[in-house]
Amino acid sequence: MRTARAVACVVWVAVSGLYVPGAHAGEKIRVTFINPDKPGNPFWDALTEFMQAAASDLDIDLQVRHAGGGRFSASNLAQEILQSDPKPDYLVYIPQVREIGRTLQAAEAAKVRSFAINTDVLPEDKILVGAPGDTYKYWIGHMFPNDVQAGRDLALVLLRESRAKYPGKTAEVIGVSGSRDSAAAVDRNTGLESAVSQFENTQLNQIVFAGWDPQDAQLRTAGLLKRYPQTRVLWAASDAMALGMVTAARAQGRTPGSDVFIGGVDWSDAGLVAIAQGDLVASMGGHFMEGGWAMVLLHDYHHGRDFSSALGSTIRSEMQVIHKGNVLSYRKSFSGKYADAIDFRKFSRVLNPGLKKYDFSLKAVLNASKQ
Length: 371
Fold this sequence. Notes:
With 371 residues, the protein is α/β, with parallel strands linked by helices. It has helices spanning 42-57, 71-82, 100-110, 123-129, 147-165, 183-198, 214-227, 239-251, 269-277, 290-302, 308-311, 327-333, 362-366, and strands at 29-35, 60-66, 90-93, 113-117, 139-145, 171-177, 202-209, 233-236, 261-265, 282-285, 314-317, 320-323. The protein folds into two domains: 4-145 and 287-366, Rossmann fold; 148-285, Response regulator (Rossmann fold, 3-Layer(aba) Sandwich).
């Protein structure tokens, strides 16, 4: 478990560790990001685009390397990067189950500072690696969403929708999750189970794993709906899988938004279109912005701004919900090359000494347009 010293429960703030005042001032910062998938994944593409826009504004030389999927591929790519010449100043990556220790050891040997984003470390790995700065001094920060809360909030939105349409009826639920070795999937499942336990007249029929694959989610949902024909709430750990659930429900004569209520996670473009059309009830998201915030924090760290004394090295960010009531305004603000219109320099405390804290909220993003 992380100690209280290592956790900062504030809005979207994290990074600490090996603090070198004014390190490399005046030089262009070299950062390499390991995208765990191949190009074409909607979520990772969105995270990368947001990250690249931030790097451009902050004069960071950002190199994006694609691992192509699989924890071993990502870990092996990290080894390659950390043994390269020249090495990056910073490595940004997604923690891989049972592989993060190998990555941290390699970064330590290479004397390359690393910053993990988007996914928590599973308990069995946490016992070995601790928190940033505990065992590995070159591990300077870890930013990841509160996936338990996201899974819980999504379930509550769906349950309330079902309750409003079918008052007095038992709300039967099925869940389709990601992969068994994903901390995000496990935590989102925990959130679903928590919501069901606190919501009266609710029954969780089954949670299955579909490996984040929408086709697999569709097939598994088809089987679950036959096994549990009274199910009205279909919870998915991602938008892509939620859309697979929509297809499966329609194939069995069900009407999403009317007699079955479906939601996911990620704020994907396809997911938001489905919300606007009524096929999905809601999507949790905002965590794709973490790559951009990592750029802001590494920029400030590199230029001598120590975060650890006030903020700690670890943060759990809160996802937010998009539903039919706010989906149109969100899509209007985040359409096209929206990230290029954001002035990421406004988030830096080095460039804005008057800032008392970091504010990476959605409201702050909408107010940070370039003039």
